């Protein structure tokens, strides 16, 4: 195909060159004929002989015209009088006859160049007026250049032109061969149809797999995002052509994609999703990053942790319950019935007091149930979970599940930090200001050093060894994401008496209270009671 293009270009260039070449040769022949005619007409003796001698085949005009023709190589030199009668001709027998073409313009004093057919065939012709000493027109001179000579020059030029065209074609063919070889090496000798098929398969594979793929060029800009990557990152096709920081905003996810965070299986949080990212450089200076959604696995891991904690708590409660049953059985066998009744009241009262205390201050059932369960786990781990006396949370949460996640993660971290310390304790405080919820979780653990207080909210950062089934360092980043999604914030500081204190502010976390409708009959009483 490249050779055919090169040959076509060579033929087209040759044709475009030959088209004006014929016209140029015609113009040169006509100008040469005109120049010979002008030179002939400038000889005063010819004009004098034209008026003094008769038109004859051996007259002076004929002899001079033939001399000029022989000297210049013209096809003919015809001298005529004002009547158009020839006084010279290459065929002496035609001397004295009228010319075959119209000499009117030349006899009128104008010079003429033309390609015309005469008695001697097709020729390039030049005609000029012949003037006497006084400047009057006494005749005309017509000089012709054989058109065959023009054609011969054109044919003579064609081989050279074809030689140049052939050379150009050879160079083009050689260049096409080198380009073809290079293209074959780069495409691994695949045909265009194979490349098109591979491209179609690649597009189907990229957009069909359930793993996000992000390709970046050597400048670090996104050049490809498959459907799963767009879903996981929460961006659209407009991110193509942008830097990760521009498409995703500053954060760990952008740092991982840009290669500023080294390593494999890097954890990052995007929105409410936990992602595992791997980045591999490519030969062209770019990179390809893959993203896997680990949100469900992380949730399962947390549920497994909770289940294990509850299992341990139930096991401990089982032992404690067996001990209490043995104690109760002993009291009954000793016929100490009053003591047995008192003992049962104390045991039941402790658990009931804890549940009632939480339910009285937190009216949302999901959050109250979560804290009751956390209290059981905390007791099994030797940590006292206390709900602050200042806690008041009405049952008007906009997103109770989100707040349960925030409280659960903070309490789990606090239990991990406080477990094993002297007088281990975790305190939860939930207060409201208008429609804003302020959550504080304090523990008696070692606390968070000031230089680490910003890093604790980074994905993957943790001071504890991760369990076998999942990574650590995701709970606090999820808390931050949930808080920021509601326009809030999360900070960490030092609790009174030591330990860490996490504060979460969630604006607009409470729904607006429903307006109370007061019956007309009791409106006055209600107003009076309200004023009291």
UniProtKB/TrEMBL annotation:
PROSITE patterns recorded: HIS_KIN
Signal peptide: none
EC number: 2.7.13.3
Domain of life: Bacteria
GO molecular function: kinase activity
InterPro entries: HATPase_C_sf, HATPase_dom, His_kinase_dom, PAS_fold, sCache_3, Sensor-like_sf, Sig_transdc_His_kin-like_C, Sig_transdc_His_kin_SpoOB
TM regions (residue ranges): 161-179
All copies of domain Histidine kinase, residue ranges: 399-510
Reactions mediated catalytically: ATP + protein L-histidine = ADP + protein N-phospho-L-histidine
Compartments, as annotated in UniProt: Cell membrane
Class of this enzyme: transferase
Alphabetical list of CDD domains matching this protein: HATPase_DpiB-CitA-like (cd16915)
Keywords for this protein: ATP-binding, Cell membrane, Kinase, Membrane, Nucleotide-binding, Phosphoprotein, Transferase, Transmembrane, Transmembrane helix, Two-component regulatory system
Membrane topology classification: Multi-pass membrane protein
Presence of the UniProt keyword Transmembrane in the record: yes
Segments for region (Disordered): 511-532
Annotated protein name in UniProt: histidine kinase
Species this chain originates from: Streptomyces ziwulingensis
Upper classification of the organism: Bacteria, Bacillati, Actinomycetota, Actinomycetes, Kitasatosporales
């Amino acid at each position: 195909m490249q050779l055919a293009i090169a040959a076509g270009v060579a033929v087209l260039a040759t044709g475009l060159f030959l088209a004006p070449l014929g016209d140029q040769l015609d113009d040169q022949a006509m100008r040469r004929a005109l120049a010979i005619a002008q030179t002939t007409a400038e000889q005063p003796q010819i004009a004098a002989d034209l008026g003094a001698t008769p038109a004859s085949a051996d007259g002076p005009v004929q002899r001079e015209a033939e001399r000029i023709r022989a000297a210049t190589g013209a096809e003919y030199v015809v001298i005529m009088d004002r009547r158009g009668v020839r006084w010279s001709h290459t065929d002496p027998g035609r001397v004295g006859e009228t010319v075959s073409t119209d000499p009117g313009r030349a006899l009128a004093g104008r010079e003429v160049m033309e390609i015309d057919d005469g008695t001697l065939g097709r020729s390039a012709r030049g005609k000029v007026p012949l003037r006497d000493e006084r400047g009057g027109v006494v005749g005309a001179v017509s000089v012709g250049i054989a058109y065959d000579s023009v054609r011969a020059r054109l044919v003579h030029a064609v081989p050279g032109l074809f030689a140049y065209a052939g050379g150009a074609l050879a160079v083009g063919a050689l260049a096409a061969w080198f380009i073809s070889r290079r293209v074959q090496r780069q495409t691994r000798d695949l045909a265009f149809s194979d490349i098109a098929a591979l491209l179609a398969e690649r597009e189907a594979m990229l957009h069909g797999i359930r793993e996000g793929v992000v390709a970046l060029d050597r400048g670090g800009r996104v050049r490809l995002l498959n459907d799963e990557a767009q879903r996981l990152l929460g961006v659209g096709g407009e991110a193509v052509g942008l830097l990760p920081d521009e498409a995703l905003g500053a954060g760990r996810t952008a740092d991982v994609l840009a290669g500023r965070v080294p390593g494999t299986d890097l954890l990052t949080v995007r929105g409410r999703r936990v992602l595992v990212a791997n980045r591999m450089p490519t030969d062209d200076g770019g990179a390809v990053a893959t993203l896997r959604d680990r949100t469900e696995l992380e949730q399962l891991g947390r549920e497994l942790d909770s289940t294990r904690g509850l299992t341990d708590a139930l096991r401990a409660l089982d032992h404690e319950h067996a001990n209490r049953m043995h104690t109760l059985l002993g009291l009954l066998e000793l016929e100490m019935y009053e003591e047995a009744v008192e003992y049962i009241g104390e045991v039941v009262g402790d658990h009931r007091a804890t549940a009632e205390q939480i339910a009285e201050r937190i009216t949302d059932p999901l959050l109250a149930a979560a804290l009751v369960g956390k209290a059981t786990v905390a007791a099994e781990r030797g940590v006292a979970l206390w709900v602050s006396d200042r806690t008041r949370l009405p049952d008007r949460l906009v997103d109770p599940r989100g707040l349960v996640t925030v409280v659960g993660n903070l309490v789990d971290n606090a239990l991990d930090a406080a477990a094993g310390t002297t007088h281990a304790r975790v305190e939860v405080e939930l207060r409201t200001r208008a429609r804003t919820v302020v959550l504080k979780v304090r523990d008696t653990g070692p606390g968070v050093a000031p230089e680490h207080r910003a890093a604790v909210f980074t994905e993957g950062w943790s001071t504890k060894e991760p369990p076998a089934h999942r990574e650590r360092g995701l709970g606090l980043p999820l808390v931050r994401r949930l808080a920021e999604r509601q326009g809030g914030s999360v900070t960490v500081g030092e609790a009174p008496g030591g330990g860490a204190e996490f504060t979460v502010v969630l604006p607009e976390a409470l729904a607006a209270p429903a307006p109370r409708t007061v019956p007309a009959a009791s409106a006055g009483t209600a107003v009076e009671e309200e004023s009291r």
